[in-house]
Amino acid sequence: MKNLSLSLLIIGLTFVSCKKEEAQKPEETTTKEEVTTETKPDSATVAKAWADYATPSKAHEMLAKDSGTWDAELTFWSPDNPQEMKSTATVTYKMIMGGRYQEGTYSGDMFGMPFEGKGTVAFDNATQEFVSTWIDNMGTGMMVTRGKYDEATKTSTFHGEMVDPVTKKAKKVKEVITYIDDNNQKMEMFDVAEDGKEFKSMQVVSKRKM
Predict the structure, then answer these.
(1) Could you give the CA distance from residue 59 to residue 121 in angstroms, rounded to a whole number?
(2) CA distances (Å), origin 182, targets 68, 125, 130, 206
(3) Which run of H or E residues covers position 157?
């Protein structure tokens, strides 16, 4: 008799539990549907987002101010050699693709060999940051850095990685561009160690030519 009563009690509890679950399911479904409806943007919102993403901004206007030809003095430092090495180059900046990107073309002489390099700078309207790429004939890789402009110090600071051809490992780099005035700039490149220590490996001082 006790076994029968216990069995009936278990069946009753199971039935009540099932009823509660069934009662909760419609509420859960409604909640999910409401969340989906709220988070899904309409076509007008999507169109505006893409239009804003594609429209050059004040940051692009700042990049366009560099358009023209500049004379550059390059200085290099190595941790293994205290003596600095110098070189010169000419760089021409221009805006491409409807003013959306800055393209810089470098040419000169480096370590007794002809040197050519090309950089692009974008301002991503979605992330609100600058993105820079760099390639040259001294290697086969590409350096990509990202950063922001600080109006108070008139500097843009970029962070990224590049592969060390000796160790074959990626190393962190930092690039700081100081806008001295409309006709003078300074770019400093730093190697960043794992412990955060920085070593200044390169400096480029540029003066507008035309």
Answers:
(1) 11
(2) 11, 24, 19, 11
(3) strand 155-163
Q: Which amino acid is at 69?
A: T
Average pLDDT of adjacent 10-residue blocks, the chain of 210 residues: 42 45 49 60 94 97 98 93 91 98 96 94 98 96 97 97 92 97 97 94 94
Query: Mapping DSSP to helix (H, G, I), strand (E, B) and coil, where does residue 8 land?
Result: helix
Burial of 108 (0-12, 13-18, 19+ CB in 10 A): middle
**Gap between the Cα atoms of 72 and 137, Å rounded:** 17
The DSSP result for 10-48, as a single string, is HHHHHHHHHHHHHHHHHHHHHHHHHHHHHHS--HHHHHH
Residue 94 to residues 46, 49, 167, 177, Cα–Cα distance (Å): 31, 27, 35, 18
Please give the Cα distance from 8 to 208 (Å, whole number).
Answer: 93
HEC readout, 59-98: HHHHHHCCCEEEEEEEEEEECCEEEEEEEEEEEEEEEECC
Read off φ and ψ for residue 49, nearest 5 degrees.
Answer: -60, -45
